[in-house]
């Protein structure tokens, strides 16, 4: 089929996540793009790498047999028309088609790290339970589920009642507010895989294993709420040795390198 008859069609999902399909014939999709909000992690990341509020994560995928025909570029153009003036983040493997694609389209490289994966089948649930049960005097665990719907901080999310949705948050609260938190997002493809952001621990609350506590709590909670989730992926920025150690301790395995690219749309 000629590229000229491929249509780029807006196909937002049931949660309102903006999504576009490259449709080759009725019911046949050659490529997909979607945009998801990035949770801000001001406690975890140095300011120069922390995503700005309103930053969107771009997921772009073209079926292998349809690549190098301009479909990815057309999907990106549809994204650009929708998200005027916003900042996009993309994660790619080094020396990949996606890296060449990003550089061709003017994305700027802003960081690197490892792509890590944890499979529930590798985790002892009783051990997780023991981690969750450890007392942390002065702190209490809180959980939240729902859809972020434009919230720019975990504090904002926790002010809303929990409900059905793609996000699961576990937080350690003290009298002064949230001290540590970690977020998982479900609903990406493949459905059995969730994506984790954090844990992030407030500077003044570090050194008390709160990150491990909230992460163990999240792993337990996520499986209760979304039993179809079998694995969790995350990215660990280079140089963050504490986070690397925590994730290895919990059983996250490195899958490969990841480069982060950003583009501010005109
Ligand atoms: C990255 C991806 C979406 C590109 O889709 P695509 O439809 O093949 O992209 P386009 O045809 O629009 O390519 C535009 C330009 O990107 C560059 N590019 C794309 N694939 C490339 C490759 N394999 N090698 C070198 N350059 C490449 C080229 O400059 C290309 O222009 P050209 O064909 O005129 O030389 C696709 O390879 C893919 O789905 N990869 C797996 C998913 C992924 O890694 N996504 C990460 C998010 S970007």
Automatic annotation (TrEMBL):
Alphabetical UniProt keywords: Acyltransferase, Transferase
Pfam families given in the database record: Acetyltransf_7 (PF13508)
Domain N-acetyltransferase stretches: 1-133
Example GO molecular function: acyltransferase activity, transferring groups other than amino-acyl groups
UniProt keyword DNA-binding, yes or no: no
SUPFAM superfamilies linked to this entry: Acyl-CoA N-acyltransferases (Nat)
Keyword Metal-binding assigned: no
Domain of life: Bacteria
Name used for this protein in its record: N-acetyltransferase
Species, as recorded: Micromonospora sediminimaris
């Amino acid at each position: 089929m000629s590229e000229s008859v491929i249509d780029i069609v807006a196909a937002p999902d049931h949660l309102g996540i903006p999504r576009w399909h490259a449709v080759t014939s009725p019911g046949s999709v050659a490529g997909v793009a979607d945009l998801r909000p990035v949770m801000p992690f001001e406690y975890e990341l140095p300011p120069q790498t922390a995503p700005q509020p309103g930053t969107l994560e771009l997921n772009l995928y073209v079926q292998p047999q349809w690549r190098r025909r301009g479909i990815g570029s057309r999907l990106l153009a549809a994204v650009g028309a929708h998200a005027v003036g916003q900042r996009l983040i993309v994660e790619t493997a080094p020396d990949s088609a996606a890296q060449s694609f990003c550089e061709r389209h003017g994305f700027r490289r802003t960081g690197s790290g490892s792509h890590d994966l944890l499979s529930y089948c590798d985790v002892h649930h009783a051990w997780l339970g023991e981690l969750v049960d450890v007392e942390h005097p002065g702190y209490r665990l809180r959980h939240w589920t729902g859809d972020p719907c434009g919230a720019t901080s975990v504090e904002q999310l926790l002010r809303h009642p929990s409900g059905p949705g793609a996000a699961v948050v576990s937080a350690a609260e003290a009298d002064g507010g949230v001290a540590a938190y970690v977020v998982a997002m479900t609903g990406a493809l493949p459905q059995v895989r969730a994506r984790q952001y954090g844990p992030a621990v407030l500077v003044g609350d570090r050194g008390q294993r709160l990150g491990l506590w909230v992460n163990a709590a999240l792993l337990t909670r996520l499986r209760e709420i979304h039993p179809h989730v079998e694995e969790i992926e995350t990215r660990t920025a280079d140089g963050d040795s504490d986070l690397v150690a925590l994730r290895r301790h919990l059983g996250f395995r490195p899958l490969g390198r990841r480069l982060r690219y950003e583009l501010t749309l005109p």
